[in-house]
Amino acid sequence: MWKLPEKVKKSRLTAELSRLETFENPKISLEQYVTPPELAASLLHTAEMSGDLEKTLDLGTGTGMLAIGAALLGSEVTAIEKDPEALETARKNAEEAGVRDRIEFIESEVQDTELEKRSFSSVVMNPPFSQHSDQGERFWREASGAASRVYSVSATNRRDSIKRLVEKLGYEVKQLEGFEVKLPATYGFHTQESRKTGIDLIIAEDD
């Protein structure tokens, strides 16, 4: 299995993730946005440096950005996604990246997946977190049952509510780092080619 060179791991990982295909027909009902490769690489590099990528669960993998990145860093990965179209793209991306044999892709709602409690070394995810849906909370509930440490991406404007949710689930936010990233125009109502938005990288641990 090819593994990224130690000295250029983060930059090389970013470059590899930048090659992946994105959503062909993004669904706004599922809040499908591409995780920026730089942000994904930062999250995964942090998890790898902490020794948390032995056996990884990716909830809502989309087109496979986090799952494939974790696999490139040597992890065995289980990736959950309910959208069959996105999942097919994820499988193709994993094949192109040479890590298909390290990732188990499962088509399922996150709450319908039977996961053995604490069976993963970590969870990585970029969950939906609309003001009008509880989907994001479902992701966190499943993540809290699967691993003692969770690495998640979230919108900065949801920071306080997510902190409260994390604490309610018996976890503690160990690290939170804010980023400003450019997201490409994804849906027809987006009038700019790209837009800046605040994103948090959150690391939570079972206390």
Walk me through the structure:
The chain is an alpha/beta fold and 207 residues long. The protein has a single domain, classed as Rossmann fold (3-Layer(aba) Sandwich). It has helices at residues 9-18, 37-49, 65-72, 84-97, 135-146, 159-168, and strands at 55-59, 76-81, 103-107, 122-125, 149-155, 171-184, 194-206. A 7-stranded mixed beta sheet has the order 3-2-1-4-5-7-6, with helices on both faces. α1 packs antiparallel against α2 (37-49) and α2 (37-49) packs across α3 (65-72). The N and C termini lie far apart (35 Å).
What's this entry about, in short?
It is built from six helices and seven strands. The protein is α/β, with parallel strands linked by helices and 207 residues long. The protein has a single domain, classed as Rossmann fold.
List the helices and strands and how they pair.
Elements: H1 9-18, H2 37-49, E1 55-59, H3 65-72, E2 76-81, H4 84-97, E3 103-107, E4 122-125, H5 135-146, E5 149-155, H6 159-168, E6 171-184, E7 194-206
Strand order of the largest sheet: 3-2-1-4-5-7-6
Span from first to last CA? 35 Å
CATH C-level class is: Alpha Beta
Structure class: alpha/beta
Strand content: 25-35%
When the domains are counted, the total is 1
Give the ordered list of helices and strands: HHEHEHEEHEHEE
Low-pLDDT segments: 186-192
Q: What labels describe this entry?
A:
Rossmann fold; 7-stranded mixed sheet; alpha/beta; 6 helices; 207 residues; 32% helix
